[in-house]
Amino acid sequence: MPPIVGRVLREPLLHFLAIGLLLFWLFALVNDDQRERANRIEITDADIEQLVAIFRKQWQRPPKPQELQSLIDSRVREEVLYREALALGLDENDTIVRRRLAQKVEFLMGDASGVTEPDDVTLQVYYDENAERYREPPRLSFSHIYFNTDRRGEQAAKDTQALLERLRAASPRVTQAPDEGDPFMLPRIYVDKRTDEIARDFGSTFAEQISVLEPKQWHGPVVSGYGLHLVYVGSREDARLLPLEQVRSRVANDWLVEQRQVADEIIYERLHSRYEISVVGQQSKED
Predict the structure, then answer these.
(1) pLDDT of 69-86, one tens digit each?
(2) Stated pTM of the model
(3) CATH code given to domain 138-238
């Protein structure tokens, strides 16, 4: 080897240049590979199985070949637009995206909570501690006569009182009077209805009033959002505590929900402790 070539090969600057070129080549190779992966959209067998399962659940049959191709095309389109949105930074400072991602983390927290089905002893204790949740409201069977206060005005109260006196004096006892009063959009007879169901039709005040009326006679006037009513309570079943055997699934579900909420809060507090929280605007107001 000529002496000049040896001196050149031993030159440190040449070594640094060679190393720099090698690093540049490796960096370009890695970047090209990353770009290739980033620009590659792969629909796997698992993806196709998922698409088929969703279609089958909705339509109760497997998709036809052209339908499956349409599903795949839609998935590809969604992925293309999703990646372009990320490239444009459209996911940043978007309230809906932030909320959706936060919800996903909450779902993951729920999966990680490790809460399992309660045993019989746990279920009984929870049921006893929360018995009021499983108390069924009173049930009533009643008929009513409606008086439209918008149409009758002040006369409605007088008409109601006059009919009440006639009904109470009638012999044999009258339990229904469909020809009396004014037309009404809802049924005139209700059989074995819970007070919360009655409240949905007439309002809570009406339901509370008739729930304490003495059965087997006419009462009134009872006020609802529609006007005045004369009410005949045929039967009343007082509120009762439903036995555990009858509401077991409800009790178990309520227990699971509460336990998962507790577990989620513990996980959140651990995550929260990783961050230093500073609410600058609030501090400024306090100062």
Answers:
(1) 999 998 888 888 888 888
(2) 0.52
(3) 3.10.50.40
